[in-house]
């Protein structure tokens, strides 16, 4: 069966048998196993999570399986968190071109995540509800971890060897100077809550609306300079594996990244998640919804069965055995510290869609890069064009947006007043 190319949606259609054959050739058979657990304590009922381990890049091909884990911390109600949990994954996947091999698929993910986040925000705001949500969205495919986030729910990586790294950026106005500057440059005002007598209290907020975050999904009652464009980071673990801890700010307001990781080392994922929540509550009490997902990415040769009870042995043999084990652990530790545990593949946090959607020559003229709606030949507007009222040096270069998504882009970048559409 021959390949069909050049369909209106801009995606080459490839026979399923050919895709599976390609996957089997490129896929390393030694994939890690993924084990996970979740724990939560509710205060306001606005935290939601997603754990899905049976996703497939190529439908019907078990070797193309990947996993998705996410936390959505809602505010001003739970509608945005629920909507995002139910729709974000499908919006991200619909923005990935079809017919890609695994490596190409992973390379396409950062751009698809941006499109999926913006589309989810755009659709939710059209419902006229005023709630909002953070979103920390994690895709685990083999040894590769891709994280996209808006808001202050955080994902950390505890790699083998004890190194703890953060895979997200907190979009809190209080701590994030770059985001404060972006919001004010786009037309927002940043300040603390004023009370009677002129005194200012609380964290820095963006006005109108009074939101403490500079990025979220939803929040239609604040300025559109509060954007849904995520920070994205993609890393590849060594074959030693590692542990991800994904949690809402109920955890991170109580524990540092290092303390959260230390509190649950040596425990299986389910117990580890419970322990992190327990430690956060012990430190701070239940002041907010508190949700934690722990994901272990485990080398295939690690045994999942408990070690058998030790046999009786002489004291001398026991001493020699302990000495040998300690020497082996020391050698392993030195070996791990001598190699790069985590390889960074991609990192980008800009709020500008022109930078996040790229300028690939393969960008389709006939599909909006955000909402995937079909475009007539004369409808597409280049994401690289300046203001709608100005000329661009590259108005022909894709990706292209429909008029509605172009209005959204202009509002997020402060190129038109929030809520004012250009017809």
Automatic annotation (TrEMBL):
Q: Which CDD domains match?
A: PP2Cc
Which terms does the record give in the GO molecular function aspect? metal ion binding; protein serine/threonine phosphatase activity
Provide the species name: Dillenia turbinata
Enzyme Commission number(s) from the entry? 3.1.3.16
Which residues does the UniProt record annotate as the domain PPM-type phosphatase?
A: 28-297
InterPro entries noted in UniProt: PP2C (IPR015655), PPM-type-like_dom_sf (IPR036457), PPM-type_phosphatase-like_dom (IPR001932)
Which PANTHER family does its entry note?
Answer: PROTEIN PHOSPHATASE
Q: Which UniProt keywords apply?
A: Hydrolase, Magnesium, Manganese, Metal-binding, Protein phosphatase
The record's SUPFAM superfamilies line, in alphabetical order, gives:
PP2C-like
Coiled-coil ranges per the record?
none
Q: What is this protein called?
A: protein-serine/threonine phosphatase
Pfam families (UniProt xref): PP2C
Name its co-factor(s): Mg(2+); Mn(2+)
As its record notes, the protein acts as a catalyst of: O-phospho-L-threonyl-[protein] + H2O = L-threonyl-[protein] + phosphate; O-phospho-L-seryl-[protein] + H2O = L-seryl-[protein] + phosphate
Q: What class of enzyme is it?
A: hydrolase
Family under the similarity heading: Belongs to the PP2C family.
């Amino acid at each position: 069966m021959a390949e069909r190319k050049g369909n209106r949606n801009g995606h080459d259609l490839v026979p399923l048998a050919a895709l599976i054959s390609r996957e089997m050739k490129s896929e390393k058979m030694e994939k890690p196993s993924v084990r996970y657990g979740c724990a939560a304590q509710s205060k306001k009922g606005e935290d939601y999570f997603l754990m899905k381990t049976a996703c497939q890049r190529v439908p019907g091909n078990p070797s193309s399986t990947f996993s998705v884990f996410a936390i959505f911390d809602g505010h001003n109600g739970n509608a945005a968190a629920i909507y995002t949990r139910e729709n974000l994954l499908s919006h991200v996947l619909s923005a990935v071109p079809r017919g890609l091999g695994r490596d190409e698929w992973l390379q396409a993910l950062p751009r698809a995540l941006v499109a999926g986040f913006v589309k989810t925000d755009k659709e939710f705001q059209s419902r006229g509800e005023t709630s909002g949500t953070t979103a920390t969205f994690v895709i685990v495919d083999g040894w590769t971890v891709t994280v996209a986030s808006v808001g202050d729910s955080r994902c950390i990586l505890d790699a083998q060897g004890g190194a703890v790294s953060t895979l997200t950026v907190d979009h809190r106005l209080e701590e994030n100077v770059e985001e404060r500057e972006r919001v004010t440059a786009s037309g927002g005002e940043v300040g603390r809550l004023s009370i009677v007598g002129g005194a200012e209290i609380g964290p820095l907020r963006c006005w109108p609306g009074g939101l403490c975050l500079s990025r979220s999904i939803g929040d239609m009652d604040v300025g559109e300079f509060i954007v849904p464009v995520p920070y994205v980071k993609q890393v590849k673990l060594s074959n030693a594996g590692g542990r991800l801890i994904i949690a809402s700010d109920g955890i991170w307001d109580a524990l540092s990244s290092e303390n959260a990781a230390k509190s649950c080392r040596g425990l299986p994922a389910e117990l580890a998640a419970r322990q992190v929540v327990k430690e956060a509550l012990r430190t701070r009490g239940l002041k907010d919804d508190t949700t934690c997902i722990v994901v272990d990415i485990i080398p295939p040769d690690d045994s999942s069965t408990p070690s058998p009870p030790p046999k009786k042995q002489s004291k001398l043999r026991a001493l020699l055995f302990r000495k040998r084990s300690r020497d082996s652990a020391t050698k392993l530790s030195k070996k791990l510290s001598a190699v790069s545990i985590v390889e960074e593949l991609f990192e980008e946090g800009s709020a500008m869609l022109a930078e996040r959607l790229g300028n690939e020559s393969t960008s389709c003229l006939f599909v909006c890069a955000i909402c995937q709606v079909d475009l007539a030949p004369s409808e597409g507007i280049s994401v690289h064009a300046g203001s709608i009222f100005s000329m661009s040096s590259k108005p022909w270069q894709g990706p292209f947006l429909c008029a509605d998504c172009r209005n959204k882009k202009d509002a997020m970048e402060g190129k038109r007043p929030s809520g004012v559409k250009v017809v």
